[in-house]
Amino acid sequence: MHAPNSSSVVLEKRKPSGQKNVKVKKKRVVEEIAPGVSRVAHRIVNSYIVTDANEGAWVLVDAGLPTSARHIIKVAEQRFGRGARPAAIVLTHGHFDHIGSLRRLLERWDVPVFAHRLELPYLTGKSDYPPPDPRVGGGMIARMSRLFPRKGINLGDRVQALPSDGSVPHLAQWRWLHTPGHSPGHISLLRDSDRTLIAGDAFVTVKQESVLAVLTQIQAINGPPSYFTIDWGAAQRSVQALNDWAPQVAATGHGVPMSGPQLIEQLDALAEDFYEIAVPDRGRYVREPVLADEQGVVSVPPPLPNPWPKVAGAGVLVLGLAAAISFIRRRRE
User: Fold this and answer.
1) Taking a C-beta distance cutoff of 8 angstroms, is the pair 189, 198 a contact?
2) Domain 5-11+28-304 classified CATH 3.60.15.10?
3) What are the residue ranges spanned by the domains of the chain?
């Protein structure tokens, strides 16, 4: 197994004659987590550059945040030369933090985009994603999720469905697996030769709902980000399928990639106790999933009632009664 390691660009700075050359180590630009798989981190989310030694091509997996385009292009040109572009872009799913820089990248690169057929409605302008659920708890990011973009984008004929046979265009060693739950057409990428997994958000290695965990990147396997997960039964089955495959390296959409015994133990625990570890105690989609098809969202469960207006109303009533009783007592005195 290839252990994850950091890869930095090292240049030699020439000194005048008679002085020694000094190696200057530049800031890390890419992290290789398995042969031919490099992580490009964008603050709260990851993209991956995947190369195929046999085909001599490379593919970008996910497109990060709206501010990620410049960083992705810079990394690509440092790796592959000026003007480098991928053979394709593959999306694990189409949430805003995985397609944020897609339009800008496509303005620069004339390349196809591939996604699962059930994700295409949100990438061709046919449907918006269901509302996020800020009531799932777990931290400030979950509470902020009501502000996150969920509107679909329209890539037109630039996006197409992944091959139905499970193959990944331009990556002969890889195959895709439908891992829904977090989104209808969510996929993960698997390389059977060394059990390397690109999991997207089927599970992640950070508690994505918590600002503190995200900022510190505390590494621990968690279920999919709960505020956007719309079918917990499907999410559980997806985690179980990935655990049954027994990955040795897991590159996730959020958090630091994980490998070895730590990955095996924690993923097995998540699969075994998914409902205790991952599923919120309450939430809009906990008891009833979103229904979706090839046209997009079909039905969405109603939002949970907000208890705060009732609590506030009860508080006002109590204060009013207390004031009235106090007034009557003073009048009697």
Assistant:
1) yes
2) yes
3) 5-11+28-304
